[in-house]
Design brief:
alpha/beta, Rossmann fold, seven-stranded parallel beta sheet
């Protein structure tokens, strides 16, 4: 038992969670804090970041807020400097910032030719550049210390062709490729101490997709019904169900795991529909 505990022990480590004010990012920040990790909650809204930090501190955890936009270099550099004033090293970076927007989505009444290219670019920037840039700026310290864990957030939209969400799908597919590329880059140039992996959530209800999946009365929309029909477990995921995978990837229990994309999807990616 002592050996198993030692493998998963995270006490005293430090972490930055981008998108830490969101549903999934916030849950991840709180979970790591409960494991004894000193957490920096990075987001664009000071009030929301302060709220998550307050909740962590009320549970006895240690956390600080970081204000930054993941696609703006200057703000990320300021956040990095603030972080290192409080903590001497960075052990874990979770790139949980991301999202979608209506113009990069094709409604049932539209076709591909109605796609708003400007919004498509914004979604690509938010999800892809919003992962690459924070990693480049915040995780540079990992190269110096030759240790650290980077976890990106992928999606089922990266692995299976989903209707409507063309911009989001393209950007998350790029995340899968970037994760594998960076894992090789880090291991080859900075040693085995830096690992890069991704978590690919299945369908979780958040603010951005709630109207696509649920009617105002809480029943499933047609799209929601289709997703449930193609999820062997027959339900949507709960944010807390990502935590086991997160802790495993952050800990020494996965010390020979890098360049992987772990699905947490209730079997969605395994089901052919037949």
């Amino acid at each position: 038992m002592n050996y198993v505990y030692q493998l998963f022990a995270l006490e005293g480590k430090t972490a930055i969670i981008t998108g830490g004010t969101g549903v999934l990012g916030g849950e991840m920040a709180k979970a790591l804090a409960r494991c004894g990790v000193k957490v920096a909650v990075l987001g664009r809204n000071q009030e929301n970041a302060d709220r998550i930090v307050k909740e962590i501190r009320e549970e006895g955890g240690e956390a600080i807020p970081l204000l930054a936009n993941v696609v703006q270099k200057d703000s990320l550099e300021k956040a990095r400097d603030t972080f290192f004033k409080s903590y001497k090293k960075l052990d874990i970076l979770v790139n949980a910032a991301g999202g979608n927007m209506p113009g990069a989505t094709i409604t049932p009444e539209q076709t591909f030719f109605d796609l708003e290219l400007q919004d498509f670019r914004k979604v690509m920037d938010l999800n892809l550049i919003g992962t690459v840039l924070p990693t480049q700026i915040l995780a540079s310290a990992m190269a110096t210390q030759r240790s650290g864990v980077i976890i990106n957030i992928s999606s089922m939209a990266a692995q299976r062709a989903l209707t409507r969400v063309v911009g989001y799908s393209a950007s998350k597919a790029a995340i899968d490729n970037f994760t594998k590329w960076l894992a090789v880059e880090m291991a080859k140039k900075f040693g085995e101490g830096i690992r890069v992996n991704a978590i690919a959530p299945g369908f979780f209800i958040g603010e951005q997709n709630k109207s696509l999946l649920l009617n105002s009365d809480g029943t499933y929309t047609e799209r929601g019904k289709t997703i449930i029909q193609h999820t062997p477990m027959g339900r949507f995921g709960e944010p807390s169900e990502l935590i086991g995978t997160l802790i495993w990837l952050c800990s020494d229990a996965s010390r020979f795991v890098t360049g992987t994309v772990i699905a947490v999807d209730g079997g969605f990616s395994a089901f052919s529909g037949v």
